[in-house]
Amino acid sequence: YLARVxxxxxxxxxxxxxNREPDFFFYESGVIITAKSMKMDVQWKKRVSSALNxxxxxxxxxxxxxxxxxxxFETLPILPGHKRWTPLLLQYVLRFFGKELGARTIxxxxxxxxxxxxxxxxxxxSPIQNFGDAVVAYLLDNxxxxxxxxxxxxxxxxxxxxxxxxxxxxxxxxxxLAKDERFAWDAKGENVTxxx
Length: 196
Prior knowledge:
- By secondary structure, this protein is an alpha+beta fold.
- It is about 35% helix and about 15% strand.
- It contains eight helices and eight strands; from the N terminus they run H-E-E-H-H-E-H-H-E-E-H-E-H-H-E-E.
- The strands form three sheets. The chain has a three-stranded antiparallel sheet.
- Strand 7 and strand 8 form a beta hairpin.
């Protein structure tokens, strides 16, 4: 569309300031929605904040983003055209208004693409600060006693949990958890021992 009306679209994401300013949000992979069309006023934000409080009342202070039930999304403000909320849209709203709304997301690895769904949603002041914290919380919450894993075994556990999907972090588990002393990797990055 932009090309047809004569606007150069070479580096569109940069021109739209995606990830830098709250004008456009990813709705789903390859699809964006404008903040203006969402009519984000004070009442809108209060409703989102209230819905998040209810979510955390049921889920303690964190929940895997992909595990949020579709019924909960229906408690959020109505979107233009009565579109359904998506986890990716929630992630982008929290990126810019998380402190105000009382929640934020935890990404598995900063180098992941802009439209990759993050691992978990946490209360803004949660002790879960990074991906390593989220992995440890998952192991403890689910009473997983195993502490030594092959890299792919741990990755598959996280895929099955919904924290990551498909080929995310394939061959990158050691990088995603590299700066966390609780994850002791062997020299080749093939095996890890989790110290709790």
